[in-house]
User: What shape does this take?
Amino acid sequence: MVLRPLEFSDCLHDSPFFRENLQAHEKELENTSEAIKGLQKECRRLLTAMKELSKAQRSFASTLNGFTFEFIGSDQQTEKEAVILSAFQQFAQIVATMEDHRDLLMESAQARLLSPLEKFRKEKIQGTKDYKKTFDRHSERFLNTLDKHLGLSPKKKESVLSESDITVEQEQKLFRQAAMGYVKVLLDVQERKKFEFVEPLLGFMTDQMTFYHSAYETGQEYKELMNDLQVKLQDVRQVWHESQEYADSLMKVTEEKAQHGDTRSGQFVRQGYLFTQKERKLGGITSGLSSSKCFCQYMKSNSLFVIFPIADHSKGRFVCVLSCVFILAMCLCLSVCLSVRPFVHLCMSLTACLCLSIYLVSSL
Assistant: This one.
């Protein structure tokens, strides 16, 4: 929409065209005021979303900073493992740095966008309403004075008519001053909105560009570290690929040994679960058998037999019993190590004739 210019000379005639053009300018300022209010609303929504994003980003950074995992192998980490673990803290620092820049952007949006727009809308656009009230008041007074003057009878005294003429001229002068003052203010606001409205938006967009440029600068700062990390990750991936063939062959060899009854692991020649049963009596009457389970390890080199009592609390768990069953009925002279609690062993020597039926089941 293109507005017709308001001329000061139009105020002298107060034509219907002047009044119509005046209303068009007033309507345009009202539309501008509503548009600014809508823009402010969306800007506040944007800032709220940015605050939520910043909060989520900082929470993510905090989780990254405390994140860790264990590596398989020796207690001392390799150089690559140390770099991989430290990467989490570096990532957290990058995110935190960017959120610091985002905080500056949000503060700037309040100071350089919302506040200036609100000031322009209230002081400039809404300020024209005071001039409009003055214009309307003098317009009404001038018209009323003119009506009274026209209503005077020609038979009135010359002094009365002269006084009425003077009053009309005074009210006309005040009306023209008010009209021209109102037109000047309207034109002033229409021109000022070109820069006072656009400049805050320009500043906000500049701040946004600065924010994104800060992200680029932060990336450049950590570029060498991230490139080094990428190289080490590629090396670790390559090692993993090379180890897959070895792992497959080792798994196949272990499976073949198990099929031939060789389940040795480390220094123990036999490992598995030991199930024992005893009669359960109730009131001196046998009411069935109760069973218990232990995990056992046998070391042939020093005849050490280690027993770990197992408390299986799982319900309805299916235990697959392999065909590796040993029935022992012999005199044993062993050194027995009984694990009463985890990592606490009760050792004793037995020299006795044990005649038991023991079912040793290989562990899965």
Q: What stands out?
A: The radius of gyration is 47 Å. Helices lie at 8-13, 16-65, 79-125, 128-150, 158-196, 198-221, 223-259. Confidence is low (pLDDT under 50) at residues 315-364. The longest strand covers residues 285-299.
